[in-house]
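Quick one: sequence plus 2-acetamido-2-deoxy-beta-D-glucopyranose SMILES, need structure tokens.
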Amino acid sequence: MQKNTESQIESSLLLGGQALRKRFSLKYGWIFLLLAFCVLWVMFSNPNIADHIVAKLAELKKVPTTEALIPTTRTLKGPTEPPKPTSFCSFHSVLPEDALELEFLKNYITWPETPSVPDNFSLTDTSHAAHSTFTILPRDGGGSWHVGDQLEVLIKINDFNGRPKKSGGDVVFARLHNPTVHAGVVGKVFDHHNGSYTAVFPLLWEGSAQVEVTLVHSSEAVTVLDRVNQEEPGRIFFQSLFHSGSVTEATNCNVCLKAPPEQLCNFTDTRTREPWFCYKPKTLKCEHRITHAFKGYVPQPTAKEAKLFQSGVNLKTSIQSSEPSRISILPKLKVLNETVPVNMS
Ligand SMILES: *[C@@H]1O[C@H](CO)[C@@H](O)[C@H](O)[C@H]1NC(C)=O
Ligand SMILES: *[C@@H]1O[C@H](CO)[C@@H](O)[C@H](O)[C@H]1NC(C)=O
Ligand SMILES: *[C@@H]1O[C@H](CO)[C@@H](O)[C@H](O)[C@H]1NC(C)=O
Ligand SMILES: *[C@@H]1O[C@H](CO)[C@@H](O)[C@H](O)[C@H]1NC(C)=O
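Reply:
Sure thing.
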């Protein structure tokens, strides 16, 4: 619907341009060009006018739907219309054909419940890489590893006192690799929700292969990250400057902001529908926006929570193997029951 209106506007502009060209003779054309150039030069040498044009163009871009032609204030405060929801981050604009994929992605990234992290939490009760271990499990059916087999690795997460964790939710990465032949494969990690995990690798090359397991985040860190994401979905914030005459104002901007629509400038892309908002400046108008910049991260974790994000301790830290972590992979076993053509003679 919106697309149609847009292309109609575009095509009528094109047709208008063609008609104009036909009606103009070459002689008048030169005078017209000269005049047009003068006007453009005057306009763009004056930044205020240029700003104004840019703002007007931005407004024009928003016009295509008839809905947008109704003044915003009326749409919002019309007595017969129910008030628009003041909820923020309403990302329910998923197309029906994308709903299934969205559901799939949501299920795919579902995370198990993680331990609560109260204000008085004790760091010693949380997952600690140095006290955690992994072991390569014997091959199914015994014997040597061959290309095409599956390798299973059992990972046990312990706390700072070496006590086994009783719940899951740690972010654990596992890889099998051989740097000398530039071979590597990522392991699929299964969470048993009791402090132990199994990583499963396909064996894809012959020769040596080394298992590496990394504690990316403790389950307690996941709890904190989850809470922070709920409180501040943006996590990082942006700022725009609004400028007109001698007045300059700055406000924060993001994909979603906690405010009713009338307190926001809506810079949502009308074509891609990608949302973008800034808080409305106090005195200036939305169209006075002149810059866009990254400003920082929110919120900062408390000093105590920060202890859950220590590089080399519980953030992206290697977990050691309790036994050798290297295996040798032999060539693929010949399939014994391979069908042989019968009438070969
Ligand atoms: C934290 O405080 C709660 C009560 O508010 C108490 O039950 C709990 O044992 C405390 N935890 C620690 C680790 O001190
Ligand atoms: C954890 O769960 C797995 C799978 O259910 C089980 O094999 C394992 O024995 C359990 N480990 C502990 C310590 O309970
Ligand atoms: C922002 O603008 C877009 C498109 O112009 C519109 O679809 C959306 O409803 C607006 N959002 C709010 C909160 O005003
Ligand atoms: C060969 O053995 C595999 C399992 O080892 C089996 O899945 C497959 O069906 C067998 N093929 C034939 C032709 O018997």
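The chain has three domains: 40-69, 85-114+234-298, 123-224+305-330. The longest strand covers residues 207-217.
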